[in-house]
Structures are given as C-alpha cells and as structure tokens.
C-alpha cells in the first residue's frame, strides 16, 4: 500500500464547493489584494488565536521579517533563537541585518531550552524568537520572564502551530508578536503562500499594516521603508473556508498520533525508535508533524527504504542551522549545540495528515518493524 506523506486532495474534496464559491465571488469583485476578504480573515484569526489583532501578510517568513522591521531591529542587534528550526526563522534575522544567536534545544519538545537563553544575552540583544516546533508550544513563561527582565521583544514563531496551546493560552497571543504560515502543508494552509502576524498592542498592529504596504501611512506618503507584504484576497477567502474545520482536523491529527503510539508499542519497537513526547507543562499539541527518532545511525537507510516502497516520510531537519554553509561567518562548529546536533541525525517525520487511515498507519509501522528488527 502506497502511503503519501501528505494528501491535500483528500482535504480539498471535503470543501471544494465552498472554495469554488469563494473563487467566484473574488473573481466577480475583482478585488484581489487586501480588502474585505483579508479584513474578515484577520478578525477570524485574531479571535481564534485569542489575540487582539491579526494582520495578514504574504508568508510566514515575511511575518517574521515584518515583526523585526517594526521593532527597528537591524545591523548591530542580536536575536536569540533555536538552531533546530526551518531556515526562515534564522533567515529573517539575517535579512534585516541582525545577528542570530543560538541557544540549544530541549530534548523532549525540540523547542528552545529557556535555561540556555539568559547566558546568551548581551548589551546588543534585542529579541528572542522561540519556535513552537512541529505543533507543540515552547515553554513560554520562563521565556517571557527573561524577556521582561532584560527588556527584550518576544516574537513567537508559530508557523507550525496555529491552535496549539500553552497552559490554556493560544500560541501567538503570549509574546509581543505571533507569526503564522499558511503554506499549503500546514494544518491551516492556503493555495500558495500566505501568513499572519498577531499581537495585542494597537500601535504594533497599526505599524504592521503600514509596513506591509511599503511603509505607507497615506496614499503615496511613506513614513517608513516597509515592503510588499500584502496578503491576497484569494488566499484569505480560502482560509476563511478552512478555519471552521481546523479544530476537527487538529483533533484528527491528535488521534492519529495516539494511534501511532499504540501501533509502535504493539510492534515492540519502543527500544528501536523514540516517539514524540509531550512537554511536562500543559500543552495542546496539534501535530503539524509526527516525528520519531531512529538510533544507531539507521535513520537515513530507513528513510530510503520507506520511500523505495512508496511510503512517504521526510527529515525535519537534517542539519542544525549553526552548521549551514550560508551562516559560516557566524563561526558555528560541531559540538556547539549538542542536543540539536544529535536530533538532526536521528529525526524523521511520518504521515499524520487528518484524512489518513488506520490501515495506512499500520502499513507504515509494519514497514518500519520489518526494516529495524
């Protein structure tokens, strides 16, 4: 049985008529950039994330960049973040001219370890970007305490975690900014690129809207050098159709994760692979990814084997960012962040999308068992 890593067509089939209706309305209106559809989605996402404001932007990557820009963070400034995340987290820091400073990760959640942050703070530090990786929140209380103590901005990279919770609070509503991606493979994905920034401060929300439109405060009047970070109406319309389904899709992912846990245990594989773990603090994990760790240097061979028999899988992420060639000038070297480096050699993601079936998950686990035993 072939098992895809992700099947977007299965989800689309359930909402096709609503999406086509949105297409028709937008085509008839000929209102393609920002406008009523984007304003509607912004209100819906703000309510869903339990934040006061939400500002639609072009992508999750640009959500990070614009948040840094609004805070005036640039050359000479430092931003503390994790070495184990998608490239865009660190790319955004470099794009605005600031310097990324890494703190190693917690081995349970794979998120930045708060205990490693404070030792990285200098007079040049301006912000912390914790990442809620794979759909599970970072430990935000100690991060916020450190930020308050040192007068730092906190930008939550929640690009993989819309709807995730930390001690009953939705991610993206805790820090100064929350950044979300609507890339098609996300739990809430559009039909291309799209993103959102949430915040609770009305002045920050106002500036985000100015910066996303080339820094215009009025027609052709520019108070700042912003960028073209405007969300398309078409993507907003699609996301408004999808958002009411998001909780049920996240619950399906949680169910699928629990079923994987059971199947791995029944297959006697718990000494061969490490399964995803929940944080010690209360969370709502929405499983953008279900990642296992494979020991003894067998991960890459297992990935090749599964792909060879038609089972989708992926490696998120194969190299810590401090070791990426494009960041060589930062002076990172092997051994700097041992937890991150260990995980990058062992981790792999399995199909977890909501429409996947029990039979498919059993096929995946049986194939892993046949290879590892």
What does this entry look like structurally?
38% of the residues lie in helices and 15% in strands. The protein has eleven helices and 15 strands. The strands form four sheets. A seven-stranded mixed sheet has the order 1-9-8-5-4-2-3, with helices on both faces. Strands 7-6-13 form a three-stranded antiparallel sheet, with no helix packed on it. A hairpin with a 2-residue loop joins β6 and β7. The two termini are 20 Å apart. The relative contact order is 0.17. The mean pLDDT is 97.
In short:
The chain is 38% helix and 15% strand.
Shape: globular
Residue share in helix: 25-40%
Proportion of residues in extended strands: 5-15%
Structural class: alpha/beta
Provide the spatial order of strands within the biggest beta sheet.
1-9-8-5-4-2-3
Largest sheet: 7 strands, mixed
Q: Give average pLDDT, whole number.
A: 97
Low-confidence segments: none
- The total strand number stands at 15
What is the end-to-end distance? 20 Å
**In DSSP terms, counting alpha (H) and pi (I) runs of 4 or more, how many helices?**
11
Task: Output the helix-strand order.
Answer: HHEHEHEEHEEEEEHEEHHEEEHHEH
Q: Report the C-alpha radius of gyration, rounded.
A: 21 Å
């Amino acid at each position: 049985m072939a098992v895809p890593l992700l099947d977007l067509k299965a989800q689309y089939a359930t909402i096709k008529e609503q999406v086509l209706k949105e297409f028709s309305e937008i085509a008839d209106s000929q209102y393609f950039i920002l406008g009523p559809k984007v304003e509607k989605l912004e209100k819906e996402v703000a309510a869903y994330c339990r934040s006061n404001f939400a500002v639609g932007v072009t992508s999750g990557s640009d959500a990070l960049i614009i948040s840094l820009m609004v805070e005036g963070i640039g050359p000479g400034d430092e931003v503390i973040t994790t070495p184990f995340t998608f490239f865009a987290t660190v790319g955004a820091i470099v794009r605005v001219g600031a310097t990324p400073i890494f703190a190693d990760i917690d081995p349970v959640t794979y998120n930045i370890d708060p205990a490693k942050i404070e030792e990285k703070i200098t007079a040049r530090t301006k912000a912390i970007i914790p990442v809620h990786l794979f759909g599970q929140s970072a430990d935000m209380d100690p991060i916020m305490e450190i930020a308050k103590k040192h007068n730092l901005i906190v930008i939550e990279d929640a690009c993989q975690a819309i709807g995730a919770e930390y001690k009953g609070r939705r991610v993206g509503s805790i820090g100064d900014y929350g950044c979300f991606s609507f890339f098609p493979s996300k739990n809430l994905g559009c039909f291309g690129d799209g993103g959102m920034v949430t915040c609770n401060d009305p002045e920050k929300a106002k500036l985000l809207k100015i910066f996303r439109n080339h820094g215009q405060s009025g027609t052709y009047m520019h108070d700042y050098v912003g960028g073209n970070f405007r969300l398309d109406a078409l993507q907003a319309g699609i996301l408004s159709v999808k958002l009411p389904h998001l909780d049920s899709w996240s619950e399906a992912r949680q169910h699928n994760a629990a079923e994987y846990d059971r199947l791995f245990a029944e297959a006697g594989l718990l000494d061969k692979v490490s399964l995803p773990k929940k944080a010690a603090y209360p969370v709502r994990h929405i499983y953008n990814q279900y990642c296992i760790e494979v020991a003894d240097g067998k991960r890459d061979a297992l990935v090749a084997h599964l792909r060879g028999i038609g089972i989708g899988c992926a490696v998120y992420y194969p190299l810590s960012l401090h070791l990426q060639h494009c960041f060589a000038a930062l002076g990172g070297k092997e051994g700097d962040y041992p937890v991150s480096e260990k995980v990058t050699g062992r981790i792999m993601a399995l199909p977890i999308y909501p429409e996947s079936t029990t039979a498919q998950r059993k096929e995946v686990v049986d194939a892993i068992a046949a290879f590892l035993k």
